[in-house]
Amino acid sequence: MLPDQQLLRIPGPSPIPPSVQRAMSQPIIGHRGQETKELLQRIKPRLKPLFGTTQDVFIITGSGTSGLETAVVNTAHPGDDVLVIVTGAFGDRFVKIAQAYEIKVHRYDVEWGTAVNPEGIKEYLKKHPEIKVVFSTYCETSTGVLNPVQELAHVVHQNSDALVVVDGVSCVGAVKTKMDEWGVDVLVTGSQKALMLPPGLTFVAASERAWKVIEDNKRPRFYLDLKKYRDNLEKDSTPFTPAVSLLFGLEQVLKLLDEEGLDQVYSRHHLMMEMTRAAFQALDVPLLTSDKAASPTVTAIKLLNSQSEQLRKVIKKEFGLSVAGGQAHMKGEIFRIGHMGYCSPADVLQIISTIEIGLKKIGQPIDLGSGTRAAQEIYLSQEVK
Ligand SMILES: *Cc1c(COP(=O)(O)O)cnc(C)c1O
User: Fold this and answer.
1) Would you say the CB of residue 191 lies under 6 angstroms from ligand 1?
2) HSE-CB of 318 using CA atoms within 13 angstroms
3) Residue 108's closest CA among 333, 329, 142, 119?
4) Residues 6 or more apart from 153 whose CB is under 8 A from it?
5) In the chain, at which end, N or C, are there fewer CB atoms within 10 A of the end residue's CB?
6) Proportion of the chain above pLDDT 90, given as a percent
C-alpha cells in the first residue's frame, strides 16, 4: 500500500475533487466584506436546483446533525406530537433530537434494510390527527435504503396537516430531488456526502407552509433559528461567521455539477449503484436491500459473524481502502460502500476488484473476477454519454 494513498469509500465523508481542494486553499477573506457578499450572491441561486425548489437554501456552519436539529427546533414546540419514521440509524437520530427538546415522539419503526411503505403512514396519520410534523430520511445511510419521499409526502398531505421534514444528507446532489413538486416542507443536506466538500456545512430549505409554522413557533432557539438565516441571506450574508473556505469550495462544486449536468450526475450514481449490486450478486454475497429500495449513493452488503469487520481490516491494511461497517445492531453483519460525489464507474471497478481480493483472503469461497466482470458488463450495457 502507498503510505499516503487513501481510498475513502465510506458513505461520507467522501473524497474531494482536486479543483475543489485548490479553491479552498485561497487566502481567507473577511466574512462581512464585499467579496463574501458577492460569493454568497453567486452561490445562492445555484443551490436551488439541487433541492428542486424556488425557496432560498440556507447555509449553516455545522455538521449534518445540526441541520437535522435546525429542522426540529424550528418546526416543533415542546409538547407537540410528531411522527418519526425510523428506517435506520439516522431516523433514530431524529427521535433522539426531538426527545432532547421535549417533543412528543411517535416512533414508526421499519425493519432495517427495507423502505417505509407510505400506506402504513396513511393509516397511522388517520388514527393520530394530533401529529404536527412527520420526520423522514431520504437515503438511510445505515442500510443503503432510498425511501419513497415523493409518495410519502403525498400521503402525508392527503391525510393530515402535518409538515413533511426530510433528511437528505447522504443523497441530495446525487439523486433526483424535487422539494417543491413533491411537497417536502423542510429539506436538509450536508457538505461531506454527495456534495464533495469536507464536513462543516449543512443546508436547509423550508416551504411557505413551513415558514408559517416557523414564524409562529415561540420555542427558544438561537444559533439554529432559521429566521436569522433568512433575514441575513436576503442581504447576501449569514448571521454568524460562515466556514469561508468551504464556501470557496462550494462555488467550485456547483461549477462541476453544472458542467456535468444534474441529470448526468444522477445517472452516473444510478450506474454506480447497478454496477456495485451486480458485482455482489455475481459473487453470491447477499445485498441487504432489494433492488427497489436501493440507494444510488450507498450499498450495504451482508457478511455475518464479524466477517465484515475482518474484510474491512484486510482491505484497509493492504490497499488503504476504507468502507464502512454496520451501525448499531448491524455491526459485524454488513459493510457499506459509499459511491457518491467524487466517484466514477472507474472507481467502482477498483473498489470491487479490491474487495474481491479481500473476500478471498478472509476465506470466502468466491469466484475471483466474477464481480468485476459483472460490473464491467453493466457498464458496457449502458449508454454512457
Ligand atoms: C451523515 C448523515 C447525517 C449527519 O451526520 P453528521 O455526522 O452530523 O454530519 C444525517 N443524516 C444522514 C442520512 C447522514 O447520512
Assistant:
1) no
2) 15
3) 119
4) 164, 166, 182, 183, 184
5) C
6) 98
Dist. CA 382 → ligand 1 center (Å):
31
> What is the reported pTM?
0.98
Ligand 1 within 6 A of CB of 190: yes
Residue 296: partners with Cβ closer than 8 Å, 6 or more residues away: 146, 171, 174, 175, 266, 269, 270, 272, 273, 339, 340
Q: Does 169 contact ligand 1 (Cβ within 6 A)?
A: yes
Query: What's the whole-number mean pLDDT along residues 189-194?
Result: 98
Count the neighbouring beta carbons within 10 Å of the beta carbon of residue 347: 15
Please give the Cα distance from 46 to 318 (Å, whole number): 41
How far, in Å, are 113, 155, 277, 324 from residue 299 at the CA level?
Answer: 10, 27, 7, 10
Rounded to the nearest integer, the mean pLDDT of the chain is 97
SS (H, E, C) 24-44: HCCCCCCCCCHHHHHHHHHHH
7-14+261-384 is a CATH 3.90.1150.10 domain: yes
The fold of the 18-258 domain, in CATH, is Aspartate Aminotransferase; domain 2 (3.40.640)
**Paired strand residues for 8:** 322
Name the β-bridge partners of 175. 172
Is 55:207 a contact under the CB 8 Å cutoff?
yes
Mean pLDDT in residue range 355-376: 98
